[in-house]
Records
---
Amino acid sequence: MKRVEIAPNLVIATLWADALNAAGMRAEVFSRYLTSIAGEIPPDQCDPAVWVLDDGDLPRARQLVRELRTPVRGVGWTCHECGERHGAQFAQCWNCGHSRPASTPG
C-alpha cells in the first residue's frame, strides 16, 4: 500500500479515490476525520490522504491525480443541435445530450 497524494479536503480526496477506483486501481482515503484534532497533532498530518492498495499502481495513480488537478484549457464550443454554449471541459451538451463534434477543439 502506497500513498498517492494528500488532498486539501475530504471532498477532493474522495473524488480522487473514486476516479482511481473507476480506472481499475483499488484506492482508499485515510485520515478522513483528523481535521477536528488539528493542533493536537501537527496540522499537516490531519489532511485526508489517498492511498492505492497495490504498490504497482502508484505511478499510474499519481499520473491520474496530476491530470485531475490540471484544469482543462481550450476554447468553448456551441452545440450544433440546440445552440447551447459550453466550456472546453465539456464533451457533451447538458441541454440536449449531443456530443461535441470531433472537429471542435477543446
---
Amino acid sequence: MLKLSNYKRLWAVLIVGVIALILNFGLQQALWAQIVVTILGSLIALLMLVDMVKTLRSGKFGVDLLAITAVVATLAIGEYWAA
C-alpha cells in the first residue's frame, strides 16, 4: 500500500478541503463535495489503520485508535465536514 508522509497527507487534506468548499459553496454541488470528502476521509482512515497496526506491533501505543474511530464515525453519519 502507498505510504504517505504526514506532510503529504496534510496537503492532500487541505487540497481536497478547498475543492469541497468550492463544490459546496461556490458551485452549489453539496453531493459532490460530500463524495470527495468521504473518499479522502476513508483513504486517510485506512492509511491510519495500517500505521496504527504497525505501531501496536512494535509495542507502542497512541491515540491513533481514537482518531480513526472519530473519522469513521463522522463519515458514517454523514458529517463529512467534521471528518
---
Amino acid sequence: MRPAWGKMVAIDLATRKIVWERPVGTTHDMGLFKMHYDLPLPTGIFNIGGSTVTAGGMIFVGAYADDYIRAIDERNGKIVWQARLPAGGQATPAVYQGRDGREYVVIAAGGHGGLGTRNGDAVIAYALPRD
C-alpha cells in the first residue's frame, strides 16, 4: 500500500485497480519550512474537504492548502481548469443547475486555521461551459 498524501487516486471499483494517480495542489500559499516564500511547487499537498463529480466526468475540488479550486478530468486525472479563491476553499464544492438551464459549481471560501490558509467569507459560483 502506497501513501496517497498530496495525491488524488482514481480506482476502478470493478477491478479494484488504480486507474491513475496524480499529485494535486502546490506549495503556493504554504511557505515551505515556515519560511513563507511564495514558491508554487507542484508537489501535491494535503487537503481538508471533499470533491464533487459531475455527470460529465469533471471532478471539482477546492480543499487543498493553496487557495485554488480545480476541475480534474476523471478519465485521466489532468487538471483542465483552475481559479484562485480569495481565501482557503476547505469545503466540498456543490454543482447545481440554474433556472437558465446552465450548470454551476459553487464553493465557500472561508479558510482554515489548521492549514494556515487565508480566512474569508466568500461564496463563489462559476458557470460551467455549455455543451
